[in-house]
Amino acid sequence: MSRKSRLWLLLGAFVIVLAIYVGLSYESYLPDERTAMKLELKQAFPDLQLVTKQGEQADLKTFDNKQKVIFVVTTTCKVCNEQKDRFDSFAKHLQTKGVVPLVIYQDKEQKSFKDFKNMEDQFYLNASLKLSNVTPTTIWLDEENQVLEVDFGDYEGRRYVEKNFDFTY
């Protein structure tokens, strides 16, 4: 085989490998088209299919009769990652008040946890579901899983849940 033929063969193989790579990674750049659940104040929080870090099925009934604060995040959320220490401090503060802090990752695919230090537990949301169009979202539930407050985003003026628990960072 001539040198020119080998060069064309190598170039063709490179183009095929590049096309496969682009095709496989393209899906991760598509917008998340899952519809967010409707969360209404003073209404029951939806009964979710959660998956633990160990891959076991779980639900919020484990934490019945306790108030809960749920941090809804994604592993790719820049703000979620930047504010991780504040979320951990808030979680520790919540535990002193008898409130269960939880993290729910709503990524389309299960990725590695960022391991929050002070959270009671961390879960993946069933991949077909989405709690919020905005991350981070903080949801405060009462003892009977009724929604008391929802903070969409992490804007200083929207931190109502933190204000309810007299938390400052």
UniProtKB/TrEMBL annotation:
Keywords: Disulfide bond. One of its GO terms (molecular function) is antioxidant activity. It comes from the Bacteria. Residues 42-147 form the Alkyl hydroperoxide reductase subunit C/ Thiol specific antioxidant domain. Transmembrane segments: none annotated. InterPro entries: AhpC/TSA (IPR000866), Thioredoxin-like_sf (IPR036249). SUPFAM superfamilies: Thioredoxin-like (SSF52833). It holds the Pfam family AhpC-TSA. This is Alkyl hydroperoxide reductase subunit C/ Thiol specific antioxidant domain-containing protein. The lineage of its organism: Bacteria, Bacillati, Bacillota, Bacilli, Bacillales.
